From TrEMBL:
<dbReference type="Pfam" id="PF07722">
    <property type="entry name" value="Peptidase_C26"/>
</dbReference>
<dbReference type="InterPro" id="IPR029062">
    <property type="entry name" value="Class_I_gatase-like"/>
</dbReference>
<dbReference type="InterPro" id="IPR011697">
    <property type="entry name" value="Peptidase_C26"/>
</dbReference>
<protein>
    <submittedName>
        <fullName>Gamma-glutamyl-gamma-aminobutyrate hydrolase family protein</fullName>
    </submittedName>
</protein>
<dbReference type="GO" id="GO:0006598">
    <property type="term" value="P:polyamine catabolic process"/>
</dbReference>
<dbReference type="InterPro" id="IPR044668">
    <property type="entry name" value="PuuD-like"/>
</dbReference>
<dbReference type="GO" id="GO:0005829">
    <property type="term" value="C:cytosol"/>
</dbReference>
<dbReference type="GO" id="GO:0033969">
    <property type="term" value="F:gamma-glutamyl-gamma-aminobutyrate hydrolase activity"/>
</dbReference>
<keyword id="KW-0378">Hydrolase</keyword>
Amino acid sequence: MAAVVGITAYAEPITRGFWPTERATFVTQPYIDKVYAAGGLPLVVPPRVGNGADWAHAVLDRLDALIIGGGADLDPQHYQADPHPLVQEYRPDRDDSELALVRAAVERDLPLLGICRGMQVMAVAAGGSLDQHVPDRVGHYRHSPTVGQFGSHPVRTRSETRLRALLGEHLSCPTYHHQSVLTHPSYEPAADADDGVLEAIEAPDARWRFGVQWHPEVGEDPRLFDALVAAAR
């Protein structure tokens, strides 16, 4: 039987052809395609404001693994910070749902992959904090060079990490983010960009738990998804 992999979703207004704009729950197709290609069964997990621990455990009862996908910035109140002027509009439904899901997944030691925003949710759920606008620190926009398009930059995994054992030392990664993880209690740093931005975290004692700042779902390398589904089995 295929491992069931939950993927967190947006709930946003969308327009479909001649239909009027309406609110819809959706996950972009590359996440779905990568999970199917790895032999998993993807399941979309809709967000809702107020979702907490009981809801999260009820969802995880049905899953063998969980992906926290990319998306808009977290509300800085979750890590006790004032908002930067360029912070994006918050998604309280995703914040509530994903923080609860990550905490429950950690409690259960469920295989967990955080992608971009998802890595940031993992860090904040553990009591960590974020850099709210990376260009202020690194002095360039290579992590999100063109609005609405993925860029690419090199990433180097750290020695003696599980991530290096999985992906090797050097990667070229699809990227689109203006925030990054600063502190990450309970996680070890696992990869960096050449400008020092943290690009991955891992939980060495977990069954399988990684966060990556890049977007493997739009790249050609399937190994993260293959390994997640293998762990879920």
